[in-house]
């Protein structure tokens, strides 16, 4: 009997058995465990709202939990960086907004590359912006705000969810267009900014229609204008910027999308795109989003990639022309 050979055979067999679970785990169909949607902003933001609406639908489709995790900070850079460093296995995804295309223009350095470190999955929705003021501010419309701002330079301040957010660029563009001066007060998310707007600690701010509509209905804020060529169906009494003589604000909008880490296999990206697009275009989700001022707008990974690249060029041109900086 060749005892050493028998022991070698037994050892090899044990190694194969021990490795089997790892092989099975790698070959397990996606998803075989919980999927985390990272929202790089605070609760009540548009991306958070979408994540919490689609999360349960994706969970039902996948048969696995879908966890929404808020990681606000640094104008979305904290949560975005977390996803950039995650494994490309589909289990950690980023709920991105167009801040993703703005920060490269406004920050000298980022802890990630907005193109190289991510795989675009799908655009999900879009929303218009509105200019909101605290009711105590003595203005009733855009014209009176501009007049007040010019007569009282630097007296009013404005809140944003952080440097480099669409809200920040929107106000800086408005200031440049109208020749007014407002002091910037950046927050770590939309929740704190809105709370202080209603409390009178900041005077005005730009916000997406979904994030501020309920507060306007309750009389806690006053809305002066909305972006877009037509009035919002949810805010029919609020005139557009165009109606009030400012055609330069239509470049400001909000889009929402999902991104994966860069090394995610193309086949998995295609699977994720299919599932997100089908969920977003379901009658149930559309019905939940519509009252919030969010319109479903979906497409392929290639279309989202083109949108990101085009927006990066557009925002850089705006930042360069207005001299906007990260305060």
From TrEMBL:
Residues 1-25 form the signal peptide. CDD domains: PBP2_Bug27 (cd13578). SUPFAM superfamilies: Periplasmic binding protein-like II (SSF53850). The keyword Acetylation does not apply. Keywords: Signal. Pfam families: TctC. Coiled coil: none annotated. InterPro entries: BUG, Bug_dom1. The keyword Transcription regulation does not apply. PANTHER family: BLR1237 PROTEIN, TRICARBOXYLATE-BINDING PROTEIN. Belongs to the UPF0065 (bug) family. This is Tripartite tricarboxylate transporter substrate binding protein. It comes from Variovorax dokdonensis.
């Amino acid at each position: 009997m060749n005892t050493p050979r028998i022991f070698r055979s037994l050892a090899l067999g044990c190694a194969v058995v021990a490795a089997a679970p790892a092989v099975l785990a790698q070959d397990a169909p996606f998803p075989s465990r919980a999927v985390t949607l990272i929202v790089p902003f605070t609760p009540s933001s548009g991306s958070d709202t979408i994540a919490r609406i689609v999360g349960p639908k994706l969970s039902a489709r996948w048969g696995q939990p879908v966890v929404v995790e808020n990681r606000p900070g640094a104008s979305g850079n904290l949560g975005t960086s977390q996803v950039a460093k995650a494994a490309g296995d589909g289990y950690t995804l980023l709920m991105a907004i167009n801040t993703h295309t703005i920060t490269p223009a406004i920050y000298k350095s980022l802890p990630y590359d907005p193109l190289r470190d991510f795989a675009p999955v799908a655009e999900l929705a879009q929303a218009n912006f509105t200019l909101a003021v605290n009711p105590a501010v003595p203005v009733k419309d855009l014209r009176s705000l501009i007049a007040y701002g010019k007569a009282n330079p630097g007296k009013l301040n404005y809140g944003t969810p952080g440097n480099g957010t669409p809200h920040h660029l929107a106000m800086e563009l408005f200031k440049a267009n109208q020749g007014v001066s407002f002091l910037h007060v950046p927050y770590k998310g939309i929740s704190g900014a809105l709370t202080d707007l209603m409390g009178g600690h900041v005077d005005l701010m730009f916000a997406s229609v979904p994030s501020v509509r309920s507060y306007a209905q309750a009389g806690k804020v006053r809305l002066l204008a909305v972006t877009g060529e037509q009035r919002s169906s949810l805010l029919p009494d609020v005139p557009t910027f165009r109606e009030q003589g400012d055609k330069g604000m239509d470049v400001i909008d909000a889009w929402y999308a999902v991104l994966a880490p860069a090394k995610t296999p193309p086949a998995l990206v295609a699977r994720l795109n299919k599932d997100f697009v089908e969920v977003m275009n379901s009658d149930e989700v559309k019905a939940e989003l519509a009252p919030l001022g969010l319109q479903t707008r979906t497409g392929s990974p290639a279309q989202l990639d083109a949108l990101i690249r085009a927006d990066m060029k557009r925002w850089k041109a705006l930042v360069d022309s207005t001299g906007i900086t990260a305060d």
